[in-house]
Amino acid sequence: MSVQTQEPTAAEVEREARTPVSARVMAGLRAQAMQIVLVWLVIVIVFSAMSPDAFLDAANFRNIAISVSILAVLGVGTTFIIITGGIDLSMGSVLVFSGVVSSMVMQRLGDGQGWGVAIVGILVALASGLMWGLINGFLVAKAKVPPMIVTLGTFGAALGLALVLTGGIDLRAAPDVLVDSVGFGDVVGVPSLVIIATVVVVIGIVALHRSRFGLHTAAIGSNAEACRRVGINVDRQLIKVYAMAGLLAGLAGVLNLAFFRSTTIAGNSLTNLDVIAGVVIGGTSLFGGVGTVFGTVVGLLIPATLRNGFVILGVEPYWQQVVVGAFLITAVYFDQVRRAAANRGTTRRSALSRLTHRNRKDV
């Protein structure tokens, strides 16, 4: 007697991508996000107690928020990529390349001033970032090259092209209106950079948890082969995710140019590691399938607050890298423990279900 099997629907695969293992991990992830918030609050309390006059100053928290803003824009795209089970090492170089091309274009447009020139520069930066994102996505999805190798290659290529275009010298061409309104402007006392980053983060949260795009992203990270079997175009989704990350890197490039009024070619060599560390510390699993944008923001706040506090206390800034490295290793360790516990729970339930099923057949 033949047994007919019915392929699961796309909706069923999407639900299966989160249950039962992923659902348990997500529950732990939400708990971890709150734990990360508590860790950040403890750091704030410690520095506040050690230097209350300097650290608790409103201007100091403003500086911390500004320092996290550009990294948060990059962190949104990186969160989506890591949720798919991939990685992006090229974001810092793409940021620099986008800023360089944008600055060169704005310098050659008329007198290089005014909102018209600024808008063109912003569009050029976004297009440059999108181009590199599409290259990454195509090579990962279609050429089947591992994400680490692809983005390591584009990391070198984007930075190398930026150096070729500039001769290794930072460009400083940016319209005054862009610098004054975006780089150093504020709305009702809130820095423009913080507002832009907040908008990007909110859109990222909604897209990840309330849209089909985010659901497919998590499903691919959980089980890409199951997604293919039910008709989800995995390759196209991966290209979209990497393209979005590239677009956000382009946006970060023009924000960086507006804030520093420089392309800071040599100042972004560790940006990719800082962002990836923040994403992982914030609870996004390097194994794919689960993650939160909110957790990423909190994960980025921890090293920024540490750096700020160390400067105020006069501690050598090199210790900040040591502490962030310890946080990163700890976060990955607890992620492994959490997933192992979830798998053990699923195995126990599956064995119990099979035993119950057999008993029913015997009856």
Folded structure, characterized:
The structure is a single chain. With 363 residues, this protein is mainly α. It has a single domain (10-344), classed as ABC transporter involved in vitamin B12 uptake, BtuC, CATH 1.10.3470. The protein has helices at residues 10-18, 21-50, 52-55, 58-83, 91-107, 115-141, 147-166, 176-183, 192-210, 212-229, 234-260, 271-281, 293-313, 318-362, and strands spanning 186-187, 190-191. β1 (186-187) and β2 form a beta hairpin. Strands 1-2 form a two-stranded antiparallel sheet. It is globular, with a radius of gyration of 23 Å.
The assigned structural class equals: mainly alpha
**Count of discrete alpha- or pi-helical segments spanning 4 or more residues:** 14
Strands, total number: 2
* Average predicted confidence as pLDDT: 85
Strand content: under 5%
- Ends apart, CA distance between termini: 23 Å
Name the poorly predicted regions: 1-5, 347-356
- Sequence of secondary-structure elements: HHHHHHHHEEHHHHHH
- What's the oligomerization state? single chain
- Based on CA inertia axes, which overall geometry fits? globular
Largest sheet: 2 strands, antiparallel
The percentage helix is over 70%
Tell me the CATH architecture.
Orthogonal Bundle
How many structural domains in the coordinates? 1
Give, in spatial order, the strands making up the sheet with the most strands: 1-2
Radius of gyration: 23 Å
List the topology elements.
Elements: H1 10-18, H2 21-50, H3 52-55, H4 58-83, H5 91-107, H6 115-141, H7 147-166, H8 176-183, E1 186-187, E2 190-191, H9 192-210, H10 212-229, H11 234-260, H12 271-281, H13 293-313, H14 318-362
Antiparallel strand pairs: 1-2
Helix pairs in contact: 1-10, 2-13, 2-14, 4-9, 4-10, 4-11, 4-12, 4-13, 5-6, 5-7, 5-11, 6-7, 6-11, 8-11, 9-10, 10-11, 12-13, 12-14, 13-14
